Amino acid sequence: MPTLGVHQLTGNVEEYNQFFEALKQISPVPVAFEQIESGANGYYHLEDRRIAIQENISELQTVKTAVHEIAHAKLHALPEKEAQPDAVKIDRRTREVQAESVAYTVCQHFGIDTSDYSFGYIASWSSGRETEELKASLETIRNTAAEFIDAIEDKFLEREQAQNKAAERSKPVKAQTGKKKSIKKQLAENKGKSAAPKKSAPKKEELSL
Fold first, then answer.
1. CA 209/CA 207 separation, integer angstroms
2. Cα angle 162, 164, 169; round to 5
3. What phi, psi does 7 have (nearest 5°)?
4. Cα-based distances in Å from 40 to 2, 6, 76, 111, 184
5. DSSP code of 174?
6. CA 112 to CA 173: how far, in whole Å?
7. Could you tell me which of 8, 10, 28, 27 has the C-alpha nearest to residue 19?
8. How far is 52 from 171, CA to CA, in rounded Å?
9. What Rg, from alpha-carbon coordinates, does the chain have?
10. What is the value of pTM for the model shown?
């Protein structure tokens, strides 16, 4: 695997647990940690339909690798023997450029800088390729990254809405403010309203004979 100019990422990611959980939810296959003997940070297993991430790497490297492998699962999941006869076959170098470009774009959108790793990785895998070949992947990269970004943001929004609902349910019911009038006072007021002044009957004039 080309590794020219590729530097392992270090550092933490803000709201890492929530972000990684969102990635697991948008992934079309299960994502799990394991000890990868080959030294890779992660891989997508075609036959088992699963993603493995190297355990005990930095949060930054974990998130970047997860997006990269999910891109493989979405774009390059089917083995060549299962692909449709008229499908365009994508070689290994193009697949790696597409997956890493999607990872970089998605991470960059959320303020996660993976350039120390992504730039060298993409340069290594695209070495010797014609410009037209690379341009052909741009639409795929753009559309896939946009799909990932929307899906991740939806997961964060769902989580925020659930938290707001939970907070509303946990709020104590507020007691009514203001003093209630006593029953005696209310009766007195009602009696006063009903006791309207009586009009005196007109006096009859006295007739003298």
1. 7
2. 95
3. -120, 130
4. 12, 13, 18, 25, 84
5. P
6. 42
7. 27
8. 42
9. 36
10. 0.75
Q: Which domain holds residue 124?
A: 16-79+88-167
- pLDDT tens across 78-109, in order? 654 455 554 567 888 999 999 999 999 999 99
pLDDT tens digits, one per residue of 1-28? 555 568 899 999 999 999 999 999 999 9
Which amino acid is present at 67?
A: V
Q: Facing residues of 64 across strands?
A: none
Number of domains composing the chain: 1
SS3 content of the chain, % helix, strand, coil (to 5): 55, 5, 40
Of 62, 75, 59, the residue nearest 148 (C-alpha): 75
Q: Do the domain assignments include residue 180?
A: no
Amino acid at 36: I
